[in-house]
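Supplementary notes for students who missed Thursday's class. We covered one full example, reproduced here. Read the sequence, then the structure, then the short commentary at the end.
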Amino acid sequence: MRHPDPYPFPTVREDLRIPLPDGTRLHARVWRPVSDTPVPALLEYLPDRLGDRTAQRDAERHPWYAGHGYASVRVDARGYGSSDGLPALAAGDPPGEPFGEPSGELESADGLAVIAWLAAQPWCTGRVGLLGLGEGAAGSLRLAEFAPPALGAVVAVCPVEGPYAPDSRHLGGALPAADLHARSAAALALAALPPDPRDVGDDWRPRWRERLAAIEPPVHARLAHPARDAAAERNGPAKRPGIRAAVLAVGGWADPGRDAVLDLIERLDAPVRGLIGPWPHQYPDQGRPPGPAIGFLQETLRWWDHWLKDRDTGVLAEPALRCWMNESVPPATSYVNRPGRWIGDDGWPSPDVREVHYGLDEALRTAGTPSDDRFVPVRSPQHTGVDAGPFRPRGGAADLPPDQRGEDGRSVCFDSGPLPEPVEVLGAAGLRLRLRSRGRRGQVAARLCDVAPDGASTLVTRGVLDLTAHQDGDRVVEWRPGTVEDVDLELAAVAHAFPAGHRIRLALSSAYWPWVWPQPDSGGFEVDPGRSVLTLPVRHLAADAGSAPISFDEPEQAAELAVQELEPLTARPERQVVHDVAAGEWRLEVDPGSGARTHPDGLVEEEHAVEAYAIRGDDPLSARARADRTVRLERPEIGWDVTVQTRSEITCDAGHFTTRDHLRALEGGDVLFERHWERRFPRSAT
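Structure (token representation):
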């Protein structure tokens, strides 16, 4: 990682309080050139904590932008960090994002006010860009829909779409399990942390009490509103006519939100370019596997300079979509660098991609035995999905799905013969299945795998369909047992090259825990291979002939923040599966990233988290999920020591989900606040 010194411009950093129209003040940190000449402003605005949680990440990029001629600004949303007000999780807030992302009316109004305030500063030219990762990217796009006059460009990395995203696209209306309670516990802990007395003085304690008394577990908002209600449609991946700013949409094939990048290229009327690498849910310069990392800051500088400084940097001469074509690899839970190559397509949908149809009874064949009426039964054990890997990979050692042969054995598989020549896919595969369901409710999970000559099975992409969404994605329609219908299912978009001699495998299962909550009826379904088709988006093998090669600079960042990593108090495996043979129960325990560190200003930050999932192979109603999180902040020099502990647990019966949530706040080891919630939500709402 290069840390250029000196930068083109010397810089200065200052903390500010940005006033909002209602008198609320937001905590902001600004890095800008030391110059009397105004410069454009870049804004990263999100519900987080710039003083501790995002400090390392902020230090990598915001000073770099300032050193290249921009005022780079990081702002905490209302009620977070040392900003005034109550967080988005306060009881009574209108439904928006259920995990505290800035999507509600108040949060959008705040963001627009911040943009206007920045544009009016004497050190700003009046032109503003928005940037963000994940929820920050989604919030930037939502603000861009209002077309604020000062906004000229957006860089959105791994944007999440809609209130239940990223599951709303590939989970086909099914209720996610792997991320729901864990995100709720994490978001509740984040919202419950107090302001820093270094920023707000002695007022921090009464403001903390006010936050604690106001917030509610965000999982309530998710389960109280149907997955396919008006709020979901309002926030879903629809065409965005209000966006006039130029958008650079960035994603990773290892991130669940990569389809949003393709959606933006296809649907936006504003100038847009897409970039998708092999990356997880991270900025592409951070070097977390799978790589390769790229000089992302340099790439975004070209974008900012073109749209905010009127310099012709050649960004519009780039292909509409630049992406990494993954090569076939043996299955592994992590790759330092994923083998592949950069490709470019001049539009999306790409003129070099065509649909190729594979009949399940001809081009693909199954080892299952069809019944006399040609239907193949699919009835998977409930722990099918235990080798699915994390819902949102972030670059860990157990980040990607392992060899899928165990999962394939719990599924019904349709295999091609050995491929006579390579097949490269780019985009979203689709399935049309003729099904006969044994129950009123159910689900179909589909996995596309690359099977090597030695039998190793590498997951390429997947998708899920809740069968109650088979007729109308906007409402629940139960299946009439025994009836036959055609259903359509879309898998997550991917770029993958199947080599000659390998096989394409389509694996179908009736369960996929813990990605999605199982349905009460475990009877499975039957599929008619003769009336079912897999459609692959196949890219022409000669599509790159004559094209200029695509390359990027080596990663470059500002000097790292001098944070001292401390030894964790406990060490757990990142991902551990236990099979209790006598009980027939499968348990999965996940450490999503615990650790402790000391910041240069003396702040000690500790975070410990564990997620647990359990199910019996024969009982869908035995499923249970729990997440525990502890966050501690300490400033030894002033005796400030605060801890927040949260827990979110979900269980189910045939008609309801039951949530049990707990919040405890401690000051100096003494309990300051404690609250427990227990709620029941009808399954009909999900």
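Commentary. The CA atoms of residues 334 and 397 lie 5 Å apart. Residues 91-103, 162-168, 228-240 have pLDDT under 50 and may be disordered. If anything here is unclear, bring it to office hours.
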